[in-house]
Amino acid sequence: MDRIVLASNNQGKLAELQAMFAPLGIALVRQGSLRVPEAEEPHRSFVENALAKARNAAQHTGLPAIADDAGLCVDAFGGQPGVDTAYYATQFGYPKGDDNNVIALLEQMRDITNRRAALVSTLVAVRSPEDPEPLIAVGRAVGEIARRPAGSHGFGFDPVMFIPAFGKTFAELPPEVKNAHSHRGQAAKQMVELIRERWL
């Protein structure tokens, strides 16, 4: 196995994961470069959406595929926005986008004292569209939603995701430190081990 399709067209995600998969001698190929259409993501859990995306990419390419679904789960909101994280701001009349998501979240949490939240990344890999045993890796970075944004690194909710262990937000940490401890970093590390153990 020398190639796996990444069921995403996000350049940042591709670069982050490619670096982690390099030691396996496996190249990650972006699905767009193989003309794979975007998959439907109708499900309410990260694992179901990631599985749908991975099966779709495997179906269209005949190659093994890996997909991730990630989001922010806020305790005070019963785990929401969850799978709707990317569109969070649009529920409150803002255009879609990272900055607006942060603005909307801080507004919704203005009077909330329980600020515990987790960034969750679920990676799913399949050898074929029919694979009965998908590899599943979940990474969680638990922290608190800060009262105001801080830091200039990262993307998404990184400026308001305060990590008590570091005493800083993800956006204030150097990228290599963030990647080692982030939800996606944790999930990717587990996934590399699973692929080494089960597929190679």
Core attributes:
dITP/XTP pyrophosphatase; ITPase-like_fam; EC 3.6.1.66; globular; metal-binding; single chain; 5 helices; Maf protein; RdgB/HAM1
Describe the structure.
It is globular and about 50 Å long. A seven-stranded mixed beta sheet has the order 2-1-3-4-5-6-7. Helix 4 packs across helix 5 (183-198). The protein has 200 residues and is of the alpha/beta class. It has helices at 11-21, 46-61, 98-108, 175-181, 183-198, and strands at 3-6, 27-30, 65-74, 116-126, 135-145, 161-163, 168-169. It has a single domain, classed as Alpha-Beta Complex (Maf protein), CATH 3.90.950. The N and C termini lie close together (8 Å). The protein contains five helices and seven strands, in the order E-H-E-H-E-H-E-E-E-E-H-H. The longest helix is centred in the N-terminal third of the chain and has 16 residues, at 46-61.
- By CATH, the architecture is named Alpha-Beta Complex
Strand content: 15-25%
Uncertain regions spanning at least 5 consecutive residues? none
Q: Nearest-angstrom radius of gyration?
A: 17 Å
Largest sheet: 7 strands, mixed
Average pLDDT over all residues: 95
> Strand tally, please?
7
Counted up, domains total 1
Which geometry do the CA atoms define? globular
Please give the CATH class: Alpha Beta
CATH topology: Maf protein
Distance between the termini: 8 Å
How many helices does DSSP assign? Answer: 5
Considering DSSP H and I runs of 4 or more, what fraction of the residues is helical? 25-40%
Question: Structural class from helices and strands?
Answer: alpha/beta
Spell the H/E element sequence.
EHEHEHEEEEHH
Widest sheet: strand order?
2-1-3-4-5-6-7
Binding site for substrate: 8-13, 70, 155-158, 178, 183-184
Catalytic activity: dITP + H2O = dIMP + diphosphate + H(+); XTP + H2O = XMP + diphosphate + H(+); ITP + H2O = IMP + diphosphate + H(+)
Pfam families: Ham1p_like
Protein name: dITP/XTP pyrophosphatase
